């Protein structure tokens, strides 16, 4: 009997014999389940060679029963959508000429009969498996949109840095700090967009390195933002009290560089040590870069290494804003003529 079956056409069937797929609602969710039905399961087979596709009429075939789909599935309806045209081949493959991939194996779909008003016995149609979860598909589309927006902004950020660095009138301490801020932001956006578009294809080492670059560039970006806030405060005090020499301005910018670059580097060293050092106990909150994408494994893991430092910087910016506003309000008469 097994030898006879080897020569028979094959067809995967979603439900056991005498049952068909029906739609039910459970806890507000729409589900398809197998239930008893009088509809007739009648697949139509085709044979193909290098040039032609021709029908293969038979009522004897081997049925492979079961749902092969790991995720959700969808039905092909060629009588509604012409691009859903399909051909069931005798070896069990499904040829879908307008799809990619156009040839599906028995693990990629199953056939079932569905009710149709114009065909009392029902139509036997393929139910094709999604290769990824629906949520993941939506998320992937969203990430592509986000990454595209990030990449579009990169040349404008670099153009801003170029303007502030090469136009003499703008190349003061604040202008150079702003240029450093935009360069760090451009680097962060580029690395983040790369991981969103192709992070799944990165080797583990490359993925981890990208995570380190994203952390450093974003943290440094916030430090430069803090520098600009502090520099505005000092400029207000300068106009109130006394002028500052060019030499002292250069010295101030050097200290700014030490602050905005050295501290992110120190944080990066701590992060790498906690992530890679075998001497660190597993009970500690480790970054776990590369375990779940090219970033921290969880938001809790990111708290001491990213969110916490950034929150402190933003809080200090708020404090600086308060002191700057108070200084402007207190010495308004001295500052109102400053252009």
UniProtKB/TrEMBL annotation:
It is a multi-pass membrane protein. Pfam families: 7tm_2. Keywords: G-protein coupled receptor, Membrane, Receptor, Signal, Transducer, Transmembrane, Transmembrane helix. PANTHER family: G-PROTEIN COUPLED RECEPTOR MTH-LIKE 1-RELATED. It comes from Heliothis virescens (Tobacco budworm moth). Its main location: membrane. GO terms for cellular component: endomembrane system; membrane. GO terms for molecular function: G protein-coupled receptor activity. GO terms for biological process: cell surface receptor signaling pathway. This is G-protein coupled receptors family 2 profile 2 domain-containing protein.
């Amino acid at each position: 009997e097994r030898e006879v079956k080897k020569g028979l056409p094959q067809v995967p069937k979603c439900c056991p014999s005498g049952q068909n797929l029906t739609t039910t609602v459970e806890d507000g969710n729409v589900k398809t389940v197998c239930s008893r039905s009088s509809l007739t399961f009648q697949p139509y087979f085709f044979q193909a060679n290098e040039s032609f596709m021709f029908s293969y009429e038979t009522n004897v075939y081997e049925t492979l029963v079961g749902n092969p789909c790991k995720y959700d599935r969808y039905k092909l309806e060629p009588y509604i959508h012409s691009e859903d045209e399909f051909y069931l081949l005798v070896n069990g493959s499904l040829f879908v000429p307008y799809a990619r991939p156009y040839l599906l194996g028995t693990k990629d779909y199953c056939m079932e009969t569905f009710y149709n008003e114009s065909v009392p016995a029902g139509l036997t149609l393929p139910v094709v498996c999604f290769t990824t979860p629906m949520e993941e598909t939506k998320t992937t589309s969203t990430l592509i949109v986000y990454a595209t927006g990030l990449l579009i902004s990169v040349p404008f950020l670099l153009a801003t840095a170029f303007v502030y660095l090469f136009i003499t009138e703008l190349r003061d301490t604040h202008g150079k700090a702003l240029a450093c801020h935009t360069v760090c932001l451009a680097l962060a956006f580029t690395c983040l967009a790369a991981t969103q578009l192709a992070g799944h294809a990165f080797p583990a080492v490359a993925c981890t390195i990208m995570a380190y670059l994203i952390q450093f560039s974003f943290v440094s970006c916030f430090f430069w933002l803090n520098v600009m806030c502090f520099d505005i405060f000092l400029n207000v005090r300068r106009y109130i009290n006394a002028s500052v020499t060019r030499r002292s301005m250069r010295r101030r910018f050097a200290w700014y560089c030490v602050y905005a670059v050295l501290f992110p580097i120190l944080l990066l060293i701590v992060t790498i040590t906690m992530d890679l050092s075998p001497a660190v106990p597993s009970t500690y909150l480790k970054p776990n870069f590369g375990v779940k994408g090219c970033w921290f494994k969880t938001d809790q893991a990111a708290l001491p290494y990213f969110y916490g430092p950034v929150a402190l910087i933003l809080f200090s910016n708020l404090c600086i804003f308060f002191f700057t506003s108070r200084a402007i309000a207190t010495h308004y008469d001295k500052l109102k003529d400053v252009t």
